[in-house]
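Duplicate of #3305? Posting structure anyway:
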């Protein structure tokens, strides 16, 4: 069984920052690619960022490149998403996910966290 528990969401003003975290259960965390996705009401779930098993490769959606940073600590079974220079269009529920490929597709991720709300006010 795999369990992902997210935290760190909240309300922030435009231009501000938030740091999301996702704690994963299990002893094989380092075997998996980790990703972050987000979904706003009425919109499809979209890719935000992904990080390879060792943490050496990072990938970002164009909409967040230069503002967001994904990182992981395999010794602590944790992945983070540092979000800077937040914009109102970043408002969404953010999900962490565990998968087997370095992919931007939701279908390559087998397990998902519960989601955490991020609201950016203008």
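Output from current build:
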């Amino acid at each position: 069984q795999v369990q992902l528990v997210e935290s760190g969401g909240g309300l922030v003003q435009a231009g501000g920052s938030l740091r999301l975290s996702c704690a994963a259960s299990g002893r094989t965390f380092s075997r998996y690619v980790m990703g972050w996705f987000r979904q706003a009401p009425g919109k499809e779930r979209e890719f935000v960022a992904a990080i390879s098993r060792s943490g050496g490769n990072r990938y970002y959606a164009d909409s967040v490149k230069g503002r967001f940073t994904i990182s992981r600590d395999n010794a602590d079974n944790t992945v983070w998403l540092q979000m800077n220079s937040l914009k109102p269009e970043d408002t969404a529920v953010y999900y962490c996910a565990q998968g087997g490929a370095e992919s931007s597709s939701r279908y390559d991720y087998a397990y998902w966290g519960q989601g955490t709300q991020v609201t950016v006010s203008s």
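Confirmed duplicate; merging threads. The longest strand covers residues 92-99. The chain has no helices and eleven strands.
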